[in-house]
């Protein structure tokens, strides 16, 4: 591929991933709005529905974010009655995050949202699973090979 073609925006893997990510999060917005959730809050809930009562640091690691960036999201979720934050007994600096009954009840609605997104993709489920696995393998490779 010539240098000129190599630098075309539409030939960039990074742009394909970025624009697809934007399109995906834009699909979620109107679906999450009736539940009063933002996309970052939804991601936190997905983690807590999988494993409730985990540390803020653990949530950050799962999302690939620093816990400080998540603090405002978690605080707002606590204000909205979705989660409770408690200090760990053995380490006052560490916070545990636990779902409230209100946060647990949103799980049933999330299943509907998930199905709506799958339907919107317009691809067979097996293709979506394969694509997700390839994207995650790419992510893992990029993280492993980051320059120091």
TrEMBL record:
<dbReference type="InterPro" id="IPR039422">
    <property type="entry name" value="MarR/SlyA-like"/>
</dbReference>
<dbReference type="Pfam" id="PF22381">
    <property type="entry name" value="Staph_reg_Sar_Rot"/>
</dbReference>
<feature type="domain" description="HTH marR-type">
    <location>
        <begin position="10"/>
        <end position="144"/>
    </location>
</feature>
<dbReference type="InterPro" id="IPR036388">
    <property type="entry name" value="WH-like_DNA-bd_sf"/>
</dbReference>
<keyword id="KW-0804">Transcription</keyword>
<protein>
    <submittedName>
        <fullName>MarR family transcriptional regulator</fullName>
    </submittedName>
</protein>
<keyword id="KW-0805">Transcription regulation</keyword>
<keyword id="KW-0238">DNA-binding</keyword>
<dbReference type="InterPro" id="IPR000835">
    <property type="entry name" value="HTH_MarR-typ"/>
</dbReference>
<dbReference type="InterPro" id="IPR036390">
    <property type="entry name" value="WH_DNA-bd_sf"/>
</dbReference>
<dbReference type="InterPro" id="IPR055166">
    <property type="entry name" value="Transc_reg_Sar_Rot_HTH"/>
</dbReference>
<keyword id="KW-0963">Cytoplasm</keyword>
């Amino acid at each position: 591929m010539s240098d000129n073609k190599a630098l075309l925006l539409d030939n960039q893997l990074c742009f394909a991933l970025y624009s697809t990510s934007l399109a995906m999060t834009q699909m979620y917005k109107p679906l999450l709005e009736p539940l009063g959730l933002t996309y970052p809050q939804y991601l936190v809930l997905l983690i807590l529905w999988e494993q409730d009562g985990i540390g803020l640091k653990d949530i950050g690691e799962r999302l690939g974010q620093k816990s400080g960036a998540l603090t405002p999201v978690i605080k707002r979720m606590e204000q909205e009655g979705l989660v409770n934050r408690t200090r760990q007994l053995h380490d006052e600096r560490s916070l545990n995050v636990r779902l409230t009954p209100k946060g647990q009840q949103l799980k049933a609605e999330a299943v509907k949202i998930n199905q709506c997104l799958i339907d919107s993709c317009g691809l067979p489920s097996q293709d979506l699973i394969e694509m997700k696995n390839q994207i995650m393998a790419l992510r893992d490779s990029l993280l492993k090979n980051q320059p120091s």
